[in-house]
Structure formats: C-alpha cells, structure tokens
Amino acid sequence: MTFEQYLVSKRYSRVTISRYLAGAEIFTGWLQEEQLTGDQATYNEVVAFMRHLQEKGKSKKTVHGQLNILRHYFNYLISESRRQDNPAAGVYVRGIVRKLPNNLLSMDELEELHRRYELQLNVDPAKKIMLGLLIYQGLQTEEITRLEAAHIHLKDGKIFIKGSPHSNERWLPLQAHQVVEVQQYLAANRFKEGIFLSHPVRADASDRNISNRMRHMIQQLQKLNPKIINANQIRNSVITGWLQRYHLRQVQYMAGHKYVSSTQRYQVLSTDDWQGELEKHHPMG
C-alpha cells in the first residue's frame, strides 16, 4: 500500500491527501540528502528536519503543519510493518499551543443538569438519550448523528462508536439508567433500524433532524443553566472531568482522540504548571 492509498483508506479529502503527499515528499527528499529512509529516521532526524525548515525561514505554523504530516507518514510506515514506532509523536513546536478549553462545567453540574432535564415534561425520549450520551460518554454531535441501532449492545451495557478521519473507534459503557432509557426507546420504535436517533417521519433528513433537535435541546438546557453554551462545551467538560479520575491513555481512548496530545490539552493546570509543561514537552525553540 502506498502512502496515498493509506490516506484514502482513512477517508481524508483529496485536498488533505494532496497536502500530506507534498509534505511527505519534502521530508523524504531531505532524508535522501542525508542518505536515510523513512524506515530509518529517528527522533533526532525529525528534530533536525524541523530545524532545517526553521532555518529556511518557515513559520512556526508551517513547521507545526509539517510535523503533523510526519506523524501520519510514520503511522503509515507502522501500518506497513516497516517500523514499530512513530518518532514524530514526541516532537512539538514551542509557541504553538492549542487553545485550552474554557467555560467548563463540573461533573456535579452536568449530572444535576441531566437530572433536571429528565424531570421536564414535553421532552421527547430521544433528546434525553442525546443528553446522556453527551454527559456520560462525551460524544461529539457528529458521532451521535451517525450512531446506529446496531451499535447499541444492551446485554453488555455498551455502545460502539465508529471511527472517522478525525477520531478513533471505541466501546463505551452505558450507565444503568441509560440502558433503561434506550430499552424503552427501542421498544417504542420496535422496527428501528439504521440511524438510532433519527425521526421516523423524515428518514431522508435524519442527520439534519438530529442536529436540529440537538440545537433545540441546548436551548432548553440554557434555560436550566445559563452557563451552557453548546454541545462541545459539555464534551470539553466531560473529558476534563475524566482526566481527574482516569489515566491519560484511558481518557484518550474514551474520547476517541487519535493523538495523546489532543487529550493532554484538557489537563487542568495552573499558569506556572502549563508553562513548565511547554518547556518540558516542546523541544523546538
């Protein structure tokens, strides 16, 4: 399998594939000058290549983007059994920091929100299930819209979340009360197939239907708690709460993050602690 075929299998867009191929070609060209191949490159070569780009006047943003391409390229080599590690995984560009999540809610606030929402009248079961998936499984809206009935395994008390170009697949446990809610929902929709939470009247617009109901649900939640902003804020709060209870790698799996660095940005640190982490983990000046 070529690198291009690998990227196609990961369902990246043609624009992204073209950019990744061009970036990989720059790197392999540099390696050739160093009389090396991607199979042989180490952490030291990755750092040297980053410095090479900086010396050519490339901006930190450009270098950061190139580094991201290298991570994909090395993952491709791993998939081909041409190497066992990804030497770009531990390299970062100092000064390029992803924005830390803010306006977070505590788990107590989220659970109280869920309790109060469940007590509301005129709230359809699908919305209650959606809120539970946000709070207890930390799902993204996009993941909820493509959740299928076949992905619900009530006997095991788990749900399966399919992967995407931006997230990994995973199995997540359901809370006991969620199992009951889902059982009741499936019983009321006895012949339910396909998209789990789509409205039966407009099957041709299931994704839009779920997204619209999600927006309406957020508006209802804002009346219960003015601090609520959107579904992404709830997910950010959940992942941050998980990190206070579980190991980093476990939270990476639960959140579906492809890279541990995506999970690390949710770690709650003081300003001094965060600066220390930058100095420790971002070797590129």
Give an overview of the whole structure:
The protein is mainly α. The chain has two domains: about 1-100 and about 265-285, Tyrosine recombinase, N-terminal domain (DNA polymerase, domain 1, Orthogonal Bundle), CATH 1.10.150; about 105-240, Intergrase catalytic core (hpI Integrase, Chain A, Orthogonal Bundle), CATH 1.10.443. Helix content is about 55%, strand content about 5%. The chain has 13 helices and three strands; from the N terminus they run αααααααβββαααααα. It has helices at about 5-10, 15-35, 45-55, 60-80, 105-120, 125-135, 140-145, 175-190, 205-225, 230-245, 250-255, 260-265, 270-280, and strands at about 150-155, 160, 170-175. It has a three-stranded antiparallel beta sheet, with no helix packed on it. The longest helix has 20 residues, at about 15-35. The relative contact order is 0.12.
Helix and strand topology:
Blueprint: H1 3-9, H2 14-33, H3 43-55, H4 60-79, H5 107-119, H6 125-136, H7 141-145, E1 152-153, E2 158-161, E3 170-173, H8 176-188, H9 206-224, H10 231-243, H11 248-255, H12 260-264, H13 271-281
Antiparallel strand pairs: 1-2, 2-3
Summary, kept brief:
This protein has helices at residues 3-9, 14-33, 43-55, 60-79, 107-119, 125-136, 141-145, 176-188, 206-224, 231-243, 248-255, 260-264, 271-281, and strands spanning 152-153, 158-161, 170-173. By secondary structure, it is mostly helical. A three-stranded antiparallel sheet has the order 1-2-3, with no helix packed on it.
